[in-house]
Specification:
Layout (H helix, E strand, L loop, with lengths): L3 H12 L3 E7 L9 E7 L2 H17 L6 E3 L6 E6 L2 E7 L2 H5 L1 H6 L5 E2 L1
Parallel strand pairs: 2-5
Antiparallel strand pairs: 1-2, 1-6, 3-4, 4-5
Helix pairs in contact: 1-2
């Protein structure tokens, strides 16, 4: 893995106690983005805090954060960093939405 920004995103997620962190390289299929990064946290408050940290990491790397979707009651927060789409799920929301299952059922996406 050579992508410095991706490494910083993964490190920030780990330092902020996200669990089951994974990423999908979608660059061969999706011309609008490079990676989907997915992680799970224990609370809505933790999700918002992590989203703010990730927004800072992206901006420090001159990545335009298009928007952050979700609020203090959301169980899924999305940080749209153009080439880096970050999904932060609270607890069982990750399984309930099944994003990875949907994406991996399409042979184009590869979980790394």
């Amino acid at each position: 893995m050579e992508d410095k920004v991706l490494l910083e995103i993964l490190k920030t997620m780990d330092e902020n106690k996200a669990k089951d962190i994974t990423y999908l390289n979608v660059s061969n299929f999706n011309p609008l983005t490079e990676y989907y990064i997915i992680g799970t946290v224990m609370s809505n408050r933790q999700a918002l805090s992590l989203a703010n940290h990730l927004k800072d990491v992206l901006e420090e790397n001159d990545i335009n954060v298009k928007h952050v979707e979700g609020n203090q009651t959301s169980d899924w927060i999305l940080v749209d960093g153009m080439d880096y789409i970050i999904h932060i799920f609270v607890n069982d929301a990750r399984n309930r939405y099944g994003l990875e299952k949907i994406l991996s059922s399409n042979d184009i996406y590869k979980v790394e």
